[in-house]
Amino acid sequence: MRPESGTPRVFAAPPASPFALVRDHTVYSCVMGSRAFGLATDDSDTDVRGVFLAPTPLFWRFEKPPTHVEGPTEEQFSWELERFCALALRANPNILECLHSPLVTRTDDVGRELLALRDAFLSRHAHETFARYALGQHRKLEADVRRHGAPRWKHAMHLLRLLMSSCDLLRTGVLTVDVGDQREPLLAVRRGELPWDRVETWMSRLAAEAEEAESRSPLPPEPDHARVEDFLVRTRRASALRESGAPETYDTYGTP
């Protein structure tokens, strides 16, 4: 069937290289790691994390665009927008913290709308995901102590920071990435100035505080899936219309 006269013809875009997607379609990027946490030292890396929006026509091909890209520079990692939103809705600690980095390096209109949705991703599920991640990291530290007599102190520092962040989020409903006045106590852990049993006690206390805070948390039981999905659908549709050259004046169901 021939398209009606005046109907824009939409062609599937040719495959784009992963690095080109990051270079040309990043909607948000930030610095994470020690620099964002307020724990940077002279030898700290600059970890860049970002979100790119793959053009909608790329999804019409058999070979779909990547869900994430490592590079093109060292210490750089990016997620495609849909994957990023899905992980954030599951309260993935790394993703939630990426959304709250104080060191934003790049953003456009889509990125700014994504940042405006930060509260939609937050829920009490954060207690479970942060606690599960912390438990996995604690087991690794215990294995280091058994094998080598001491943990990797940098990892111990970051686990304490994560537990602090979890407690604060559950108590206040706000995720704060920078450690503020806890910088020096945490750096003392990194330097190995505290015995492991004292550090473990500190970790246990923070975990118990997070458990207690969860029952009284101002966070909602569930994230706002509908609000996030509306954003994703509108963004995908706008991308398709840009690629086709059609005006971006369509309602929720694509009706002119």
Describe the structure.
The chain is built from eleven helices and five strands. α7 runs antiparallel to α8 and α8 runs antiparallel to α9 (183-190). Helix content is 52%, strand content 10%. The chain has two domains: 18-121 and 224-244, Beta Polymerase, domain 2 (2-Layer Sandwich), CATH 3.30.460; 125-215, no CATH class. The chain starts with 17 loop residues before the first helix and ends in a 12-residue tail after the last helix. With 256 residues, the protein is an alpha+beta fold. A five-stranded mixed sheet has the order 3-4-2-1-5. The protein is globular and about 65 Å long.
DSSP summary, beta strand count: 5
Overall morphology: globular
Helix tally?
11
Mean pLDDT: 90
CATH fold-level name of the largest domain:
Beta Polymerase, domain 2
Question: How are the strands of the largest sheet arranged?
Answer: 3-4-2-1-5
Précis, in short:
The chain is an alpha+beta fold. It contains eleven helices and five strands, in the order H-E-H-E-E-E-H-H-E-H-H-H-H-H-H-H. It has helices at 18-25, 34-37, 81-89, 93-99, 109-116, 118-121, 125-148, 153-172, 183-190, 196-215, 225-244; strands at residues 26-32, 47-52, 68-70, 76-80, 104-107.
